[in-house]
Write a structure and sequence with these properties.
The protein is α/β, with parallel strands linked by helices. The chain has helices at residues 3-9, 37-44, 59-72, 83-95, 110-120, 135-145, 165-174, 187-190, 227-237, 243-253, 256-275, 294-300, 319-328, 358-363, 380-392, and strands spanning 76-80, 101-105, 126-130, 149-153, 178-182, 200-204, 218-222, 280-284, 309-314, 344-346, 370-374. It starts with a helix and ends with a helix. It binds pyridoxal-5'-phosphate. The site of pyridoxal-5'-phosphate has 16 residues, from helix 4 and helix 5.
Amino acid sequence: MNLDSKVVHAGDRKRTGGHVPVTTPIYTASSFFYDRAEQLDRVFAMEEDGFAYARYANPTNAALEELITALEGGAGTLACASGMAAIQIALTAALMDRRKSVVAASALYGATTSVLMKVLEPFGTEVTLVDICDLDAVRAAMGRANPGAVLIETISNPLVRVPDLDAIAALTHDAGAALLVDNTFASPMLVRPIEHGADFVVHSATKYLAGHGDVLAGLVTANAAHIELLRSLSRAYGPVLGPFEAYLTMRGVKTFALRMARQCENALTVAEWLGAHPRVARVHFPGDPAHPDAAVIRKLLPDGRYGAMLSFELREGRREDVFRFMDSLKMIVPATSLGDVHTMVLYPPMSSHRDLSPKQRERIGITEDLVRLSMGIEAAADIIADLDQALAV
Ligand SMILES: *Cc1c(COP(=O)(O)O)cnc(C)c1O
């Protein structure tokens, strides 16, 4: 089945008693029982599929998990309360039986870098950050760090760099480490990292998968070697998603393929328009033939679909120029998220990269004139009209 069909069918329509609900109900029950205690005993022992206690499994979450596994591949998925909860439990599972050393991309989502530096390191895990698009640097870092886990993102924030997933998977496995890929920006429509050798795929489902700016959720899909460990850690820690949020996420995913296709199209159109605008010095977009990772992008991403995130530099832009531009927008929403149905604008030095000094930001290419756009599903003409009038102010 194609991804466009899987999103509307996978996980749903489980027979309960005599009838089949067309969509999965929200199960709020915290515990479940059976006619015979013997059966509950078998469910607890995991000798029989079923539900016993909601921290272990819940039918609404199980439906969402089945759906995401159908999209990402892999052996199973865990629905978590947030993207950060998903990253935390995936890292714990990856490092469980391995050396407590992580090699990670230097340009990760801000909170992920914080977890590495402010939680894992104080707990005794070595952390090595490396320019993940420089394979020689990655090779050298792996040699020095001897990692138990490698953590990367398919498309980086906000400069939309795309690392060579296949090469990194090979290096990771040569080192005996596990590869974790945060696939939030690319989504399974563009890349399915398990097919490229990832052991864990993580999502902030808050973004493209749920897509409507109304739910916080995370997902971890694991391969066969790691799914049981992941589930047992979840039973112990309990980072599970609530059933209302699982329902909202699943409802969002049904239109994910449609939304993402439109968002990718809009991004292509808007990136081209921005590139020709006299007030724009530079556009960062994976669909640009002159992108620094163009060769990897050709190999990894489908033709014509380059994601729906882009950033651009305002010519001679200072902070106050960027603020004036953002304040002048009439339709585009200046809020801190991405992947929603509405187009959003964000200023990295103020939000995602606020904790870095201007010098540190400059070093990783996040200049004071950089603006990030997350394309929505509106008509491209309206997005362009809004950008045009705000750039003229
Ligand atoms: C938002 C985001 C996260 C964190 O997800 P939450 O749902 O906010 O906890 C992690 N990684 C990436 C790439 C994100 O964009």
